[in-house]
Amino acid sequence: MPAFRSRAAGIPCSEEVPVEIDHFSHGWLTPVVAYVMSFTGSLLGLRCMSRVRSGSIFDGWLIAAAVAIGGTGIWVMHFIAMLGFRIDGAAIKYDVPITLASALIAMIVVWLGLCLAQQRRLGNRGLLIGGVVTGLGVGAMHYAGMYAMKTDVAIGYDWPTVILSMLIAVLAATAALWFTLNVRGTLATLGAALAMGMAVAGMHYTGMFAMHIGDQQHHMPPSGAGAAQLLTPLIVSVSLVTVGMLFHLGLTEVGGTTPLTRRPATENYWPTRD
Q: Which segments within the chain are labelled E, that is strand?
């Protein structure tokens, strides 16, 4: 896949050296795997939401859906894609606390969005408010993850593209919340998960393309953990949790003998599940 190039400013023209930003240093591998994980997290989240029956914001399936969508569908997708990110001639490290905080941000904002969206007393405002809150939170997670990336060249951003990425995040989050509350049936759920994965990936790469080499260069070596040292074990850990959740979900669907009861219509929640 093509690399995206930027030239460092502040250097005389006779000495200007191109600095290459490559978002696909491993070719199609990282974007494809990232999309597969986003699809998997979205699918798992949709299936978990289909099993929510209580009105509690601490319902176990609701929390599981937030972990699946926020943790796997968004956070893991982001950092798998980042494994393919490279700046020619520059070292890249990651700040561990900020990287972990970005994962918490993703899961918390998805949980908050789901809680808001399913409040029947808010009507359509609940879905819109939840979509805006979740979308801004997803954008915050993305740029927190980018801030966690430390390198020995200055990074700048094209703000119109940043704003576009945030708009995509809000629209994608609103659509995702609508899917979680309204989609039923195997084929419809698969289609919704495919669409959610595309939306998350679109937001990510739009935000990434907003990056450029800044006007100033510095040569202090970055501190932090390398991608292989930090991201690989984190991604593997979250992926194993996802597989465990999928296995547990499959067991409860196949082995369950007691039918799930629908919420009473008098509850202040959208009665969208069978």
A: 4-7, 18-22, 86-87, 92-94, 149-151, 155-157, 211-213
Better-predicted residue by pLDDT, 269 or 240? 240
CA distance 143 to 147: 6
Q: How far is CA 194 from CA 47, 134, 177, 205, in A?
A: 14, 19, 14, 17
pTM as predicted: 0.79
CA dist 141 and 101 (Å) reads 8
- Partners of 102 in beta bridges: none
Q: Which amino acid is at 37?
A: M
CA neighbours closer than 13 Å in the CB half-sphere of residue 181 = 23
Cα distance between residue 35 and residue 199, in whole Å: 10
Cβ proximity of 86 and 24 under 8 Å? no
Mean residue pLDDT across the chain: 79
